[in-house]
Predict the structure.
Amino acid sequence: MNKKQWVSRWEPEQIATVNKALASITGKQNLHKKDRAFPPSPFGQTASGLEDFRGVVLTEPMQYLTIQNLDLSYAIFEPSGGLIYSTFTNCRFDGVKLDGRFLTKIFERCSFHKAILKNAAFGERFEDCDFTGSNLSQTKGRDVSFIRCRFSDVSFRGAHLMYCQFEECLFAGAKMNDGSLAGSKFLGEAQHLPDWGTMITEHVKVNGAALAVDHDD
């Protein structure tokens, strides 16, 4: 199925039910509640054992939540939506469009295949996450940790990810242009490091040593 088909399978009543349930658990105003689990999907689980919310339309932000084993691939996030100050474990966000939104706190074993994250703001920690084929152009982040993440064929054009840590990440085919990695630290084998392109790399360190930059004569 394609994105249009995933979206069209949802009936308005089903979407309303999901968003009503989400509204009852999301945000600071609901932190006092003991049960803040995401509601079950009317479509059950995917073949991978994840709750199947592929293509759902979310009108509420996912904020101050602890979420695991959820497939939100091709979900549509309304303008107020985002992934804010939450912990996501083993979740899929393949093909989502979250341009200009917040993706903050902790993401572990999450997938963002071919996601549009242009101008998004990253925060805190991403561990064992896969961004293959995603658009991360003009993204912003400071003091963010990326641990064992895959950035194959990702566009970082105009991204400003400064004073971040990239540990054992893969950058095959990643496009680095017209942004800044100033002050960031990279740990990993040489063949897995990015092609720095035209990124600002002032005070970048690779495996504890200052990045050696070739200057034209």
The mean pLDDT is 94. Helices lie at 3-8, 12-23. Residues 12-23 form the longest helix (12 residues). The radius of gyration is 18 Å.
